[in-house]
Design a protein that fits this description.
The chain is an alpha/beta fold and 192 residues long. It has a single domain, classed as 3-Layer(aba) Sandwich (Rossmann fold), CATH 3.40.50. Helices cover 39% and strands 21% of the residues. It contains 6 helices and 7 strands; from the N terminus they run βαβαβαβββααβα. It has helices at 16-31, 61-72, 89-98, 133-140, 143-154, 174-189, and strands at 3-8, 34-39, 75-81, 105-107, 114-116, 122-129, 161-167. The strands form 2 sheets. It has a 5-stranded parallel β-sheet, sandwiched between helices. Strands 4-5 form a two-stranded antiparallel ribbon. The protein is globular and about 55 Å long. The two termini are 14 Å apart. Keywords: Oxidoreductase. GO terms for molecular function: NAD(P)H dehydrogenase (quinone) activity. Residues 2-179 form the Flavodoxin-like fold domain.
Length: 192
C-alpha cells in the first residue's frame, strides 16, 4: 500500500488550495492508499533560518513531527499558490528549516558533491496561478517550480517530480473549479 503525504503550503484555510488538498486526499483514500497531511499554516515554528548553516537551530516539535511524516511517505504531494513568481513565505521557511544537511542531504567531506538522503521517494507539485500555466512556464521560467523541484526535491534525491498547473484562479467560476477538483481527485485515485 502506497504511503502518501499531502503538504499544503497555502497560509489561508479558506483558499482553493485547501479544496485541492481535500479532493486529492479523497481520491487517495478511495484508492486504498495510506494518507497523512502537513498543513504548514498549522505548524508552530520559526520560519527564519536565522544562522544559515553556520549554527543549527533546534527543530520545534511540529517540525520534528513533519520530518517523521516525510520519512514515512513514499510520495509527497505539494500544493501551493504562486505569489510574485515564488512560494509563499511560510512554505519557503518550512523548507529552509527542515530540508537540512544531515536530514535531507549530506555534503561529502572535501568535495563539492553531496549524498541525496531522500532517494526512493516521488513527488508531485500542484501549483495555483493567476495566469495560464503555459505563460508562467514559458514567459516567467516557472521560478517556484524550479526552486521546489530542482533545488529542493531532486537535490535531495526525490524523483520523479511531476507538476500540475491550475489557473487562472482569479477569473475562474464554480463550474471551472469543480472541473479542476475532479481532475485532482482522479490524480489521487491513480496515486500520482
Amino acid at each position: 500500500m502506497k504511503k502518501i503525504l499531502i503538504i499544503n503550503g497555502h497560509p489561508n484555510k479558506d483558499s482553493f488550495n485547501f479544496g485541492i488538498a481535500k479532493a486529492y486526499k479523497d481520491g487517495t483514500l478511495q484508492s486504498g492508499a495510506e494518507v497523512q497531511e502537513i498543513v504548514i499554516a498549522d505548524l508552530d515554528f520559526n520560519p527564519n533560518l536565522q544562522f544559515g548553516y553556520q549554527k543549527r537551530m533546534e527543530l520545534e516539535p511540529d517540525l520534528i513531527n513533519a520530518w517523521e511524516k516525510i520519512k514515512w511517505a513514499d510520495h509527497l504531494m505539494w500544493i501551493h499558490p504562486v505569489w510574485w513568481g515564488g512560494l509563499p513565505a511560510i512554505t519557503k521557511g518550512f523548507i529552509d528549516r527542515l530540508f537540512l544537511p544531515g536530514l535531507a542531504f549530506k555534503y561529502r567531506e572535501n568535495s563539492v558533491w553531496w549524498d541525496k538522503l531522500l532517494k526512493g521517494k516521488t513527488a508531485h507539485i500542484i501549483t495555483t496561478l493567476d495566469q495560464p500555466g503555459f505563460y508562467y512556464r514559458f514567459f516567467f521560467g516557472r521560478p517556484s517550480v524550479n526552486q521546489l523541484r530542482k533545488s529542493v526535491l531532486e537535490f535531495c534525491g526525490i524523483q520523479p517530480v511531476k507538476v500540475t498547473y491550475i489557473g487562472i484562479i482569479k477569473t475562474s467560476d464554480g463550474k471551472q473549479r469543480q472541473k479542476w477538483l475532479k481532475k485532482i481527485k482522479l490524480l489521487g485515485v491513480k496515486q500520482k
